[in-house]
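Key result, reporting period 2: structure in, sequence out.
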């Protein structure tokens, strides 16, 4: 068991006219090796919750246990906690400050009081993990692209050798390729290093694709906790709190309404494409020649905005259904 959160409350401006509950009686257990997505609308308490996990914020009431030990007990070392629970902020410029990339990544292990050789070894290993070679070492972190800054920020945390890695909107402001590169890196760290990952995100497509467990926050409370498929079954309830399911979920439900027997728990474009092609092949007794058309009809869902998810679903469903009709008449 990595982290256990018990009846956690946090009040900003307590005792003033500006008093506001940011977290309300949150209970959550995060197990070793999990890949968890944390979603919610702006102001739902996501970032406030993550900043409690490595002691940046102190709870108004409640408790947090790391490996069975309360982080609020007298004498507990927050410095040691932060070496085990790393946090990458949404905006990497808030986290980068040294004159060059290598010095920035060295900063964390240097503060652990490690020998110079170990500090440099950790920095090189961390930069290698995030795909930044020696040509980046002496560059100013502020001259890098947004995606490269994200990598340096992640490397700075990895150099501390954490057991838990928290990423607060790591793809914010990146183009689709940059987003895929960063999320692919995070998945690789999870798979190869065995890190426990907590991914804060606004992208339903991203969490559906990458995480194995999804926690939904609303007005400081945990409202859903389960696999992405379990959570996105409640897409109407999610809409009521200002969220949405992945766009492909709406496409699938439109197709089901049109009589196509699909699994309503489909949450990714790849799953939808494979399921539709399987149905066509079973009905036609042959391999589909229109696989590329189906991919094109649905693939845009991955990068579409969420505000019009339900509205564009009908158009995409019609597109896929039309392709299905063409297949049947071949």
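The corresponding designed sequence is given below.
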């Amino acid at each position: 068991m990595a982290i256990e959160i018990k009846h956690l409350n946090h009040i900003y401006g307590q005792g003033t006219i500006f008093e506001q509950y940011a977290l309300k009686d949150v209970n959550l257990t995060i197990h070793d090796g999990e890949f968890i997505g944390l979603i919610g609308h702006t102001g739902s308490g996501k970032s406030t919750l993550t900043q409690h996990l490595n002691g940046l914020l102190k709870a108004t009431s409640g408790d947090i246990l790391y490996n069975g030990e309360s982080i609020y007990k007298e004498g507990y070392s927050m410095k040691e906690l932060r070496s085990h629970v790393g946090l990458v902020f949404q905006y990497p410029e808030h986290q980068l400050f040294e004159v060059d990339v290598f010095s920035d990544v060295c900063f964390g292990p240097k503060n652990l009081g490690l020998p110079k050789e170990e500090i440099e070894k950790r920095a090189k290993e961390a930069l290698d993990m995030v795909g930044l070679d020696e040509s980046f070492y002496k560059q100013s972190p502020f001259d890098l692209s947004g995606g490269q800054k994200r990598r340096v920020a992640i490397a700075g945390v990895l150099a501390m050798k954490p057991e838990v890695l928290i990423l607060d909107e790591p793809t914010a402001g990146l183009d689709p390729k940059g987003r895929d590169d960063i999320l692919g890196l995070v998945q690789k760290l999870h798979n190869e290093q065995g890190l426990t990952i907590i991914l804060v995100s606004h992208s339903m497509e991203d969490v559906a694709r990458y995480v194995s467990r999804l926690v939904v926050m609303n007005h400081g409370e945990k409202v859903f906790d389960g696999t992405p498929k379990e959570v996105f079954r409640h897409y109407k309830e999610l809409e009521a709190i200002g969220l949405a399911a992945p766009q492909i979920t709406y496409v699938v439900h439109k197709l089901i309404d049109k009589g196509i027997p699909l699994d309503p728990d489909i949450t990714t474009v790849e799953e939808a494409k494979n399921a539709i092609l399987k149905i066509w092949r079973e009905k036609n007794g042959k391999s589909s020649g229109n696989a590329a058309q189906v991919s094109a009809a649905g693939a845009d869902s991955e990068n579409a905005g969420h505000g019009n998810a339900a509205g564009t679903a009908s158009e995409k469903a019609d597109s896929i259904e039309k392709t299905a009709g063409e297949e049947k008449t071949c």
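The first helix runs from residue 46 to 53. The beta strands are 3-12, 20-30, 35-39, 61-66, 69-70, 85-88, 164-168, 196-200, 213-218, 221-226. This case is discussed further under Risks and Mitigation.
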